[in-house]
Design brief:
Number of strands: 8
Oligomer: single chain
Shape: globular
Strand content: 35-45%
Number of helices: 0
Order of helices and strands: EEEEEEEE
CATH topology: Immunoglobulin-like
Distance between the termini: 22 Å
Helix content: under 10%
Radius of gyration: 15 Å
Structural class: mainly beta
Strand order of the largest sheet: 1-8-7-3-4
CATH architecture: Sandwich
């Protein structure tokens, strides 16, 4: 369902940014849900995997959904970078299946970092 799978975003602590979820196709129009969890890495592995039991729904006030009756499959969230690194998951589903993309938000402590 997804046109582009996003992976990493970098931002300075305290700054706001938008994360987007764009659906390339899907009929009927998929229902979109945003979830998050703190990024916790164990050991020396550079690959930090999400814990499927730790996903929490994002408060609805942070989420912009397509308007009712829209043919758009686009959603975004407006968040503020905090001290901890966070994983965000955008999950789209309809009666034919589910797809998701996970975005890792890495926060720097006061230094400028390029957002990819």
């Amino acid at each position: 369902m997804f046109a582009v799978k996003e992976s990493n975003k970098y931002e300075t602590e305290g700054r706001s940014l938008k994360l987007e979820c764009k659906i390339s196709r899907g009929y009927p129009l998929p229902y979109i849900v945003w979830l998050y969890q703190p990024l916790i890495c164990h050991g020396k592995s550079s690959a930090c995997l999400p814990d499927e039991s730790k996903w929490t729904s994002l408060p609805y006030q942070l989420v912009e959904y397509p308007t009712r009756g829209s043919t758009s499959s686009y959603s975004q969230i407006l968040i503020t970078a905090t001290k901890e690194d966070i994983l965000y998951k955008c999950e789209a589903s309809n009666k034919f299946g589910t797809d998701n993309t996970i975005i890792k938000l890495v926060t720097s402590k006061g230094e400028e970092i390029l957002i990819l």
